[in-house]
Structures are given as C-alpha cells and as structure tokens.
Amino acid sequence: MDRQPxxxxxxxxxxxxxxxxxxxxxxxxxxxxxxxHDVPARIWEEFQRAESAGRYFAIFIRACFEYGCVYRxxxxxxxxADKSKEGKQPKEVPKGxxxxxxxxx
Length: 105
Prior knowledge:
Structural class: alpha+beta
C-alpha cells in the first residue's frame, strides 16, 4: 500500500488507505507500521484534513478499529541506557554473611 507523508509534525510519519478493503496503514515515528481494518472512507478523509493527525488518530482511530502490527523495527542494541549499565556488576554477599538489618529507633 502506498503511504503519503503526514504534513504536520506528528508521531505519525505516513499513512495510506485502500478503499476496496477499507484498510488504513500508518507508519509511526518509531518506524513501526500498523494496519487498521474496516475503516470507512469518511474516517480516512477526515484524518487527511485534520489539523493534527496525531490527535485525530488518538481520538477516532486507535481504540475504534481492529489493528495489527505489520512491521516493527529491530530494537537497537547498546542504547545509552544499556551503556550506563555496562561494566556494573551486582554486589555479591559473601557466603555466610547475614543480610544487613535496618534498625529503626
């Protein structure tokens, strides 16, 4: 399905519609692509004219139609969060050592 770029800044990069099957396909900024089923042409037309595609999607599409993920990009390895964890080892408790107890006075 051919998708068209979404004109305003949004979490949605592109969207396309197949009137014969009433299928809406949306590519998000994460590069994931979802397909929404049984979407009336009126919804597609309103989506295209909406002042905010992201807001229109959230209100009128996301929870209103059955959907499926047709593409999810592979998760990148070595993200900043992963790098901050590199080299850190869990603290080992010596065998036979009693766990520390917190005394509340």
